[in-house]
Amino acid sequence: MDKTILVTGGAGYIGSHTCVELLEAGYKVVVVDNLCNSKSDSLSRVEEMTGHNFQFHLADLRDMAAMQLLFKREKIDAVIHFAGLKAVGESTEIPLAYYQNNVGGTANLLEAMNEYGVKDIVFSSSCTVYGAPETLPLREDFPLQAVNPYGQTKLTIEYMLKDLAASDADWNISILRYFNPVGAHPSGEIGEDPLGIPSNLMPYITQVAIGELEELSVFGDDYDTPDGTCIRDYIHVVDLARGHLHALSKLEENPGLIIHNLGTGQGYSVLDVIKGFETATGKSIPHRIVGRRAGDAPAVYDDPTLAEKELGWKAELGIEAMCRDAWNWQQRNPKGY
Ligand code: UD1
């Protein structure tokens, strides 16, 4: 394998796990990241874990000159594009930063790719593009709707990519819509390292387990679900990372634009996750039921059929591995990187 993959946002949570899978599969990797929500330590860990070194460009996708220089210096065959802001709450407070970084940054990246004739890209989208779903499980052909600025940026980028693919048949574009990534590499060397108090469920649970936070607030138990708490499709980050390699291989068949959900198809409630964590780790998680969080959909889970059929990928790791690996990472890195 002598293909070189540019990984934008490669120092982040999903990006770093994907770098490991790429390097282990024999790809060469180049990372670009502005480190606004990640640390370069993740990249050193990836190098130590895999025994492979790679180029790291500390640069911002909004900086066109830096992007052009990168493509001029490195011989890139394809891009996996993770870089972006991702906090829903924050996106309602500073929407312009979300449009600038996510939409503007992607437009720059695509222009630089076009200029240097690199026309294969895998893009990190999210199941958030389905809005508050009325029918489950979610299939790729379901209606799209953004319910917050973050989701709107993902949807806008999807439209931009569709327009680009329609304008030039040389482009091969894989849009991957992730469900809820959790867990960490089983080595415990890399994992999720949120800044400040986590807003997502699993990192909150692991910080309660390690004693950094006192108790978990469960946001609502009066939903129309079996135990009243919200249901989500949690997916192990290593499974998710591997999905990108399947998408990359698919691009070699020149498919044009393709769209796939990456989830397990299995929904777990908040209480299921707490129980699963307690069983997998032997730690008890003090928790209290509080009011609903604004904007939460009662249930979201994937129909994983299309990804299996077209990409030959399906999630292998269950809730036990997700909890065990998240906890292993937290224990080995109580304060993150
Ligand atoms: C959130 C984002 C979604 C993004 C995903 C990335 C929102 C509304 N959505 O999804 O766009 O793609 O993260 O991982 O922010 N919960 C608690 N207590 C907590 C934290 C969460 O009960 O302290 C519950 C939530 O109500 C929800 C479930 O746990 O039912 C999962 O929450 P979270 O991890 O934040 O993910 P999502 O909201 O599904």
Tell me what you see in this structure.
The radius of gyration is 19 Å and the shape is globular. The longest helix is centred in the N-terminal third of the chain and has 21 residues, at 95-115. It has 11 helices and 13 strands. The strands form 4 sheets. Strands 3-2-1-4-5-6-11 form a 7-stranded parallel β-sheet, sandwiched between helices. The protein has a two-stranded parallel sheet with strand order 7-10. The chain has a domain at 4-183 and 234-263: Rossmann fold, CATH 3.40.50.720. With 337 residues, the chain is an alpha/beta fold. It has helices at residues 13-24, 41-50, 64-73, 88-93, 95-115, 149-167, 201-209, 237-251, 270-281, 305-311, 319-332, and strands spanning 4-8, 28-33, 55-58, 78-81, 120-126, 172-178, 180-182, 216-219, 231-232, 234-236, 257-262, 268-269, 287-290. The two termini are 31 Å apart. Uridine-diphosphate-N-acetylglucosamine (UD1) binds at residues 88, 126, 128, 180-181, 199-201, 204, 216-219, 230, 232, 270, 293, 295-296.
